[in-house]
Each structure stands twice: as C-alpha cells, then as structure tokens.
Write a structure and sequence with these properties.
The protein is α/β, with parallel strands linked by helices and 499 residues long. Helix content is 27%, strand content 17%.
C-alpha cells in the first residue's frame, strides 16, 4: 500500500515545503483541511486531505459518494486485511472450522424448535375463566406428610380461643374472620406489612364480637420453596402484632421443593400442624405459638360456619390424590346442614387473569365432589392468582360465590385479561367459556384483604384495599367490594345484579 504524508500540525515553513513537494509528486502529498485549505486549492490546485479518506478509507463525509463506493472500499479493505498476519484467535477459529463438520440444517432446526424461552399466557386474546392446566417447569406432585391428628381431621375453634370469647360469639349470633392468600413478602415486604397493619386496625372495637375471631390463610404463606428460614421474615414478623389465631391451607409454594431441601411441607407442618402449641425456632423473637391443625387438609368447626380446607399440591392447576378427594366428599356429606359451609382451596376454579387463569381440573374435582355428596357449599375461597376477583356461579337455582384472593402481600400482582378486541373488562362480565359464571367485581392494581361475617341467616363479605408502598402507610383501608348471601334462599341480596 502506498504511503502518504500529511501536513498535520505543520507550521508555515512545512506547508510551503509540502506545496513544492506536491508539485513534484501530486499523488503522494496532501495538506490538512483548515483555513488555508480553500486558498491552496484555489491558487495552487492542491486537493484537500478528505479526498484521501474518500479513496482509501471506510469514511466519506458525503453519504452519496460513500454509497457509490461501498463495493470498492470493501474490496480494498478486504485486500488490506488479507495482507495482515492472522491473530492467535483467528488461527484457532480457522483450525476449528477445518476439523469440525458443519451442523446439518435439519438437525439445527429441530434443536431450535425444542427450546423453551417463556411460559405461555393462558390466552393471547380474549378472556377465559378456566383452562386445562399445563405443568410448569419442574413442578411435580409431592407426597403429603403424615397427619399429626386423628381422622377426620377436625379442629374446633373452642380448642383455640378462650371460653369467654366463644361464649360472647355464640350469644352475639355472629362470627367475623379475616381472609387473604399469597401473603409472603419475599423481595419486597412493604405490601405485606401494609396489609397486616390495616388488618390490625379492625381489632379496635370495644365489643369483642365485632373483631375478627381469626385469620384464614388461603396458601402461599412463604415463597418460594416453603423453607423454614423464610417463616420469620414472611410470616411471624409481619403478623407479630396481629391479635388473633392464624389458620392456613398450604399453597403450591409452601409445598414446592428444591435441590437439597427437606420433604415437602416440612416447615408448614412444624408451624401450622404442631401436636401441641409451642414457640418454634422459626418464630424467632416473636411470641406466636404454632397452630395445631390436624392435617394439611382439614376442617375447622366454628360457631355458625364449617370451613373445609383442601390442599391442591404443587403442579400448576392443582392435583389431589384419591384419599383426599374421598375425605372431601365425606366432609361435604356430613357437614351440619344448619351452618354455613365454606370450601377453601389454593388453586382457583375460575379466574379472569392473564397470568394463571382458572383450573378446569379444580372445577371438575369440586363439581364431582358436590354431585357425589349431594351438598353444595355456600362459598368457595381460593388464592394463587395475585389479585381480587369475585364470581357468582348460577347452579341448581342458587347463587354460589367463588372468590379469588391472592393479593395479601406478594409483590407481583396479576393483571386481568383483556377482551377479544383488546378492550378492558368492565364488571359485571359474563364469562364467554362459562356462561353461568359472572365476574361481579375485581381489583388487580392494589393489595387487599377480606373480612367475612357469618350469622345464622346471612354470609357477608367485604374486600378492603390498602395503600401502595409509595403512599402513606397510615392511610385507612378502602372498602372496594361487598356482598351478602341469604343462607335460606341461597341468593345474593347484595353485590349482584343477578336474579
């Protein structure tokens, strides 16, 4: 390649010398662009330095000339590169190509088609309230731990609360409770703490019967693998001042396992299914005793209400063995007919969200059990989906509320799905895939909790939303939704437009 000389940082004497040299060999010398450039070109005919860039470099100030000369420039650069010695990395790459056979196109395509990069959403367009569950990742059905109590796994509220409080509840003719699911404040504990503080404010009534008698947890107490070390930060510490017992059914994250972890639900059993009340190591410096539930699926006997709690295990969409299903059918069949009946399970039968959706398996399992037992519950409580949704299902001439509450504290809320045309759902909204199911109310942008009240005649419920972490934590909770079910007519008398 011909060497060229330029007048960079040249003084007046050097410029004059270059002018004389240019006349001797015009192809070898150029001057720099500057104030003298136009004068030298005008009077002496010496071209400017940029012409050298245009001809021999990958740069030209004029885009049109750059496009016209792209082929020439590329050829020239390739020719110059071929003259340069190969680097060590280039030598290794060349040797690898010589000794490695090319991958066939068909094999490469097949390998690419088997790769997984995402978890598909329940529906790319439109709203579906229930889908056939698709197993996610390594989620596997986990064997259940042995029961800590005797069949049929009942726990009476009389064995938990003081006798004087139980007497007051029975004499008042009402019992109140808090309900929430998916509370574990992993990563960002602020929302869980705000919900817990708001729940505590509802204990300020002088009348003990106007306070919630207990908190019923719908699963996913801790994330992500039910580890014992997470119980203090995600359960005991947030509820350190909550002045009532906390019962729970396990969620999928409570039962999930990872490499090297103890058997499924070990920590849950230690903290919720203890043989006797005591302070567990997970409780740390708090003073809350472990709960004494007899099994991971169990029944709570309380004044005016019976609550059957199921465990839907780890796989997406839920899964139950025959022993639990048969137990459930018998519990439905033998439940007192003069009390309200509530069924709780972590995975929802119906959900209009864009993350999980409802589970057709849970829907069919519940329906088959209702049919075989000849008994319908008055309310179905579920979690798993991180928002609040209240559905009304019309079945056998009755209104059967199905509630999804999974916004009790976990940081990631799940949005509702959009309609087929991309617009936002407005409630009430009839589910296209289940016409007998109507979404009455929903909230997908705030955390919340529920308060239920049961009397011999009515079952009422309210959903209360709380402040976002960037807002004032002292702001009072806001009542978002309310409903009332007549336990004699089995019809909603408030919170629905259905007849």
């Amino acid at each position: 390649m011909q060497q060229r000389h330029y007048s960079h940082r040249a003084g007046p004497i050097d410029r004059c010398t270059l002018c004389l040299l240019y006349r001797a060999d015009p192809g070898k010398y150029r001057h720099r662009r500057g104030m003298l450039g136009p004068l030298l070109k005008m009077f002496l005919g010496i071209p400017e330095r940029r012409s050298n860039y245009r001809r021999y470099r990958d740069y030209d100030p004029n885009p049109s000339r750059r496009r016209r000369r792209v082929t020439t420039t590329t050829t020239r650069v390739a020719h110059v590169a071929a003259e340069q010695p190969m680097t060590l990395a280039e030598k290794h790459a060349a040797e690898f190509r010589q000794h490695t056979a090319p991958v066939p196109v068909a094999a490469s395509t097949a390998a690419a088609s088997s790769r997984r990069f995402e978890e598909p959403r329940p529906a790319t367009r439109g709203v579906r309230s229930s889908v056939t569950p698709q197993r996610r990742g390594r989620q596997q059905f986990q064997p259940l731990p042995p029961p800590t109590g005797q069949p049929p796994y009942h726990l009476s509220l009389d064995d938990v609360l003081p006798a004087e409080q139980m007497t007051a509840i029975r004499n008042s003719g009402r019992i109140l409770m808090h309900v929430a699911g998916d509370t574990g404040g992993v990563k960002a504990p602020q929302s869980q703490q705000i919900v817990a503080m708001a729940m505590e404010t509802q204990f300020q009534f002088p009348d003990v019967t106007l306070r919630p008698a207990f908190f019923y947890h719908l699963g996913d107490v801790v994330y992500y693998y039910g580890e014992a070390k997470e119980y203090y930060s995600q359960f005991y510490d947030p509820y350190v001042h909550y002045p009532a017992p906390i019962f729970a059914i396990p969620g999928n994250h409570d039962g999930d396992v990872t490499e090297g972890s103890p058997p499924s639900l070990t920590a849950f059993v230690n903290n919720f299914c203890a043989a006797t009340p005591h302070i567990t190591p997970e409780a740390g410096e708090t003073a809350r005793d472990a709960m004494t539930q007899p099994n991971v699926y169990w029944t709570l006997e309380a004044p005016f209400v019976t609550m059957i709690g199921l465990y839907s295990n780890v796989p997406e969409g839920g899964q139950m063995d025959d022993d639990q299903i048969n137990w459930f059918i018998n519990e439905l069949r033998t439940a007192p007919p003069d009390k309200a009946l509530i069924v709780s399970v972590h995975h929802p039968a119906y959900s209009a969200d864009s993350h999980h959706s409802g589970s057709r398996y849970i829907q069919e399992t519940l329906d088959n059990s209702f049919s075989q037992s000849g008994r319908l519950p008055d309310l179905v409580l579920t979690g798993h989906v991180h928002n609040y949704q209240r559905f009304t299902r019309q079945v056998e001439g009755r209104h059967l509320p199905y509630i999804v509450h999974g916004s009790g504290g976990y940081w990631h809320l799940h949005y509702l799905a959009k309609k087929e045309d991309g617009s936002v759902m407005t409630t009430p909204y009839q589910m296209p895939d289940n016409p007998d199911v109507t979404l009455e109310q929903a909230c997908d942008d705030r955390h919340s909790f529920m308060r239920l009240m049961v009397t011999p005649r009515f079952l009422t419920g309210e959903c209360w939303t709380v402040s976002r972490p960037q807002e004032s934590w002292r702001a009072p909770a806001t009542r978002l939704d309310g409903f009332a079910l007549d336990l004699q007519s089995h019809k909603l008398v408030r919170g629905t437009g259905l007849r």
